[in-house]
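I hope you will forgive my troubling you with a question about protein structure. I should value your view on which stretches of the chain appear to form regular backbone elements. Here, with my thanks, is the record as I have it:
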Amino acid sequence: MERSAAFERELRGAAPHALLDVVTTALAERYGALNVELRMADYAMRSLQAVGDRPGAGEPVAVHGTPQGRAFGAQEASLARGRAHVDVHLPVTIRGDRLGVLSVRVPADRFTQDLVPELEYVCQALGHEILVAERDTDLYVLARRAARLTLAAEMQWQLLPGRSCERDEFALGAHLEPAYAIFGDSYDWSVSADHLTLSVANGMGEGIEAALLSNLAVSALRNARRAGLGLADQAALADQAVYSHYQGRAHVSVLLLRFDCNTGEVEAVDAGSPRMWRLRGRTVEAVPFDHQLPLGMFEDTVYTVQRFTVRPGDRLLFGSDGVYDASSPGGERYGERALSRSLLGTALLPPAQVPHAVLRELAGYHGETPLDDDALVVCLDWYGRPDAGGPAAATVTPES
């Protein structure tokens, strides 16, 4: 415990760009580590990029089919044994947000299974410090990109809360494509002691204008949420902010939800095009809402809340129109039947992996022609609280 505390103090006292140096020195001194390498998952979640003095300093490693990728995907240590050494690959994940992989080469005569939990602790401490350090350095952000981002994509990724999140009551995962040239699609979440607030947004337009529009809408929703307003008032305030700036020339579609962690009761405001599907057991069904006006379309729009209930074991999938409106070469929309097959086919994957898997299947479904719109998928697994009660009904009802 004393040694662990000393290591954490060293990390906290290190310069933001020198965290890996501290880890490398500590592991060499304590375990005889021969080499230490940190890789961050790129925005497309296809490769693991080395953290170095300059972008592209090391060759990327694929997420699929490599020891590092297995550690990242399975979220557990992956070992590769050689004659004289053992390579230990460990996921760097903080509160469910999968950042990357730490690889440590240890002499074979120094390696024991007891070393793995100690290295997992190192990864946890390192991950926390990376999140803090990103306020002051671009090192770890630069390592995430396998290609240059468009300015619109840069703006959108800076707006997002993360790519995954886990609590006792739920697990979340989200992904956007095309990752390096996204425009107006966005998502946001916030967790309190008893509630999860989730939004899935689709701003009209392309390029920087779409990114600016989404930034305004998401920032307005956050401002209203942090002021303690209810869900309908959050939508109304964001609606006013968008209309005030654009005077009806542009609007944002958003699905806004607030989950009660104790009961599973959900409040929802459907203001536009993002949609939701539920996997319960082996049954997939679209969850209907009363469609209301997108944010910013008209002045002083009044929004109403609908309610439904999630049960432990439910999986919810949220998609933008770039997902369900995508068509096969034969003209069949993806959202009609293929999405149900995709949900059933990914039922055993954790939520953090589902969005990428769905979008990968969507790309194959769509054929060789590139998608002509952003595609956003968010997956939520609901576990609930074991001792919490709540209604069993699952139908969507308007607020009286």
About this structure: Residues 390-394 have pLDDT under 50 and may be disordered. The chain is about 30% helix and 30% strand. The radius of gyration is 22 Å. Residues 207-226 form the longest helix (20 residues).
